[in-house]
Amino acid sequence: MRRLVVRLQAHVSIADAIRQMIRFKVNAVLVTDEKNEAVGVVSKTNILGAYYAYLPLVTPLSEVLVAPVLFCSPNDSLDKALERMRAHNVHRLYVAEQEIRGSRLVAGLLGADPSRDSPSSLSRRAAGVLAYTDIAGLLYRYCHKCPRSTLRGTDPKSNQRLSDHLRVGEVMTASVLEHRESDLLGDVMESVFRERVRLALMRDEKGLPTGVISTSDLIIAYLHGLPHEIPAREIMSQPVRGCEQNQPLEEALQQMIFSDIQSIFVYKHSPGNITGILSLSEVARARSGSCKACLASRIQIEEPV
């Protein structure tokens, strides 16, 4: 988990939330009350909805937050956290502060296992946050140290087979949101919000990929007060980062981590032939950075002494 949790109170404005997201490079902020207890979450998607609805930047976060906040215990297994994220269709879980001692004592007296945390024993204060990006980073670190890693090259004396490794095409999402760079910003915004995606691929009049528009680009446009009627090319980012769909998944994961991006477009044979998109979320859900047999639930993580 990451111990840095960006917290803002419910009366804080959308504009201030955008500034904090940009400053700390996060996709969501935790909304808290005066006691520092969680009351909701505001993500880039929620802010994008406010932009689309023409809400003023001074609108308080209480008007756009999503509740309740989903917590997990610091004692939960990584596999359990992944299953909870997938079941609730969320990209992050907040990790609760140390559980209430009285609840653990009562659980022990009643014959329950006090090491297993129940929702009622968890604090509503966050000690950290766990996102798909953190899980994908952990998988990459394990794979990078593994002697079977594709990043180390194939040892001629090894019986390693590249067929044992996951390929990008096996994990990617085989659909891409596309727009012309001449389309109106409001139309792109509507598509991104409706499809619940983080990236839109932009093409020129010849159909060639020329750039991307992300939720980050859109909330920055919101902060700058840009109207919905401008051409999308005015805010798109370049270049279009891509990888080959037959490339080992571990190599694509390295490319995303080193480039500090959360998604990458996938092409077949030629960079202009986009066939899908790969995100760190898919890598985390696949529970593998390299070998098909290497699952996060099978990795033995040493407990701190």
Kindly describe this structure.
The chain has 10 helices and 12 strands. It has 305 residues and is α/β, with parallel strands linked by helices. The chain folds into 2 domains: 7-97 and 121-131, CBS-domain; 139-152 and 163-286, CBS-domain, CATH 3.10.580.10. The strands form 4 sheets. A 3-stranded mixed sheet has the order 1-2-3.
Shape: flat
Which class of secondary structure composition applies to the elements? alpha/beta
Number of strands: 12
- Measure the end-to-end span: 18 Å
List keywords for this structure.
CBS-domain, 305 residues, three-stranded mixed β-sheet, alpha/beta, disordered C terminus, 2 domains
SSE diagram, text form:
Layout: E1 7-9, H1 14-24, E2 28-32, E3 38-43, H2 44-52, E4 71-72, H3 78-88, E5 92-96, H4 101-109, E6 126-131, H5 132-145, H6 168-171, E7 178-180, H7 185-195, E8 199-203, E9 209-214, H8 215-223, E10 242-244, H9 249-259, E11 263-267, E12 274-279, H10 280-286
Parallel strand pairs: 1-2, 4-5, 7-8, 10-11
Antiparallel strand pairs: 2-3, 5-6, 8-9, 11-12
Helix pairs in contact: 1-8, 2-7, 2-8, 5-9, 5-10
Brief account:
The chain is of the alpha/beta class.
